[in-house]
Amino acid sequence: MKVYLLRHAQAEPGFPDAERKLTEKGCRDVEKLGALLRGKDDFRPEHTWVSPLLRAEETASVFLQALGMAHASVLQKEEASLEPDRDPLPLVDLLSALEEDVLLVGHNPNLEILSSLLISGERYRSRIYLKTCSLVCLEWLPQPDHGQSGICALRWVLDPRLI
Asked: Which helix (H) or strand (E) holds 77?
C-alpha cells in the first residue's frame, strides 16, 4: 500500500483560518501536479482523506479533477486529524486498517509530524519539509525491526518548484 501526503496549495491570507481559499497560483500549482501524475498507472489512490479546512478541500478537489479522478470511485472522507494543530498519531491506526493506496490532504506541521511517525516511528526524528503543494509517497512496509524505524519507507517527494 502507498500513502500519499499532499500539503494544501498556496492559500490567501485571512481570517478565519478555516475559510482561507486557494490563490490563483495555488490552483495552478495543484493543477500542474495533477497533470504530471495523470495517467500514471502506479498513482491511483483508492481513498482520499481531507482536512475539513477549505484550502485542503479545494486542493483535493482541483488535484483529483486534474488527475481525471474527480468522478472516479475514489472514496473521499473528511478527516479532522488532518487539521493543522491536531495530533496525527490516530491517523497511523486508521491507516493500518487499509489495504489500498490512500491520499491524505492536509497541513503543516501535522503532515511533517505524520511523515516522521511513519518513517522513523518518532515525531521529530526524520523531518521532511513540505512546501505548499508538495506531495510525498510513502510505502507501507510493516516489518518487525525491533523499533528501529517506522512502518513506511520514503519512495519519492514532488516539490512544486520542480514542475
From this structure: strand 75-78
Q: For residues 93 and 128, is the Cβ–Cβ distance under 8 A?
A: no
Tally of domains in the chain: 1
Give pLDDT tens digits for 7-20: 999 999 999 999 99
Which domain range does residue 6 map to?
2-162
CA–CA distance, 99 with 18 (Å, rounded to integer): 31
Strand partners, 34: none
Question: Which residue, chain included where needed, has cell 523531518?
Answer: 127
Residue 44's CATH number = 3.40.50.1240
Give percent of the chain above pLDDT 90: 71
Q: Which residues contact 76 (CB under 8 A, 6 or more apart)?
A: 47, 48, 49, 50, 60, 64
| Average pLDDT over every residue of 78-85 | 90
* Strands 135-140 and 152-158, sheet pairing: antiparallel
Its pTM stands at: 0.92
Amino acid 149: pLDDT:
65
Residue pair 6/59 in contact (Cβ under 8 Å)? The answer is yes
